[in-house]
Amino acid sequence: MWFSGSRNGKGGAGVDGAGRIAAPSRAISAQNGGVIRSSRGLEEFFGHIHGLSGLTLLDLGGATQQNVSFITDLGHRLYSENFLQILKETSGAEGMADQSNPGLIDYFLRQALDYPEAHFDGVLIWDVLEYLAPPLLAAVVERLHKVVRPGGYMLAFFHADDKLEAVPNYAFRIQDVKNLQLLQQGTRRPMQLFNNRSLERLFTRSDSVKFFLTKDRLREVVVRA
Q1: Whole-angstrom distance, CA of residue 94 vs CA of residue 103
Q2: Is the CB of residue 95 less than 8 Å from the CB of residue 87?
Q3: Which of 67, 38, 57 is nearest to 173 (CA)?
Q4: Which class for 78: exposed (0-12), middle (13-18), buried (19 or more C-beta within 10 A)?
Q5: Domains and CATH numbers, the chain
Q6: Which of 162, 168, 167, 166 is nearest to 182 (CA)?
Q7: pLDDT tens digit at each of 225 positions of the chain
Q8: Are 103 and 96 in contact (CB under 8 A)?
Q9: Quick check: 153 and 207 in contact, CB under 8 A?
Q10: Alpha-carbon distances, residue 138 vs 35, 46, 49, 159, 203 (angstroms)
Q11: Alpha carbon 55 to chain centroid distance?
Q12: Angle at the Cα of 112 (from 53 to 21), degrees rounded to 5?
């Protein structure tokens, strides 16, 4: 059956699948303007849910047919939210303004993360958190902890070079349980950049935080709620 991934029309949709695991790709190459590369964080995330079916996952990168098909073919339900687009619509150009405004924070959370407590078994956060100012970031992480069940997993990416004024803005496409396609969509100014210690503080309420540093200077973080 088709499963709607949004209450208000922003999200994507999926269909329950047959529980199959896609065979891992051996190649890492350029394709459709993007780069396909292995991802230890992705492998870790899917390793924790391997053999399970009927889970409910959230993708904050917006609905893409490739990710919807992959997740639902594993037998899971997928909700999608275009997190950065909602941020832009609620806080001005590129989502850079008024992120400390309590009214805006409340409105943004209602637009992007209006789900019941413990609704999700896992969240694909990707790189969206580094575009949030501290007040909004704290509120988003708190809300994620509420909507993810205890013991659920979250996968987030952060640029590891803390001296950059602008970072590549990626769209993430799942190839299989070990490989991602990264499609660069220009550059974007981060609100803040993180090291391992600051990420541990950010997810201090979590049961565990695991880091993987990639060759392209992305820090992949797997969080157990």
Answers
A1: 18
A2: yes
A3: 67
A4: buried
A5: 2-224 (3.40.50.150)
A6: 168
A7: 233 344 433 443 333 332 222 233 333 344 456 899 999 999 999 999 999 999 999 999 999 999 999 999 999 999 999 999 999 888 765 555 678 888 889 999 999 999 999 999 999 999 999 999 999 999 999 999 999 999 999 999 999 887 778 998 899 999 999 999 999 988 988 988 898 999 999 999 999 999 999 888 899 999 999
A8: no
A9: no
A10: 32, 26, 27, 19, 10
A11: 16
A12: 20
For 103, residues 6+ apart whose C-beta sits below 8 A from its C-beta are none
Tokens describing residue 42: 């992705």
pTM of the model as a whole: 0.84
Residue in 14, 11, 127, 28 with CA at minimum distance from that of residue 66: 14
The DSSP line for 158-206 is EES-TT-SSEEEEEEEE-SSSEEEEEEEEEE--S----HHHHHHHTTTS
β-strand partners of 158: 219
Q: How far apart are CA 76 and CA 2, in angstroms?
A: 11
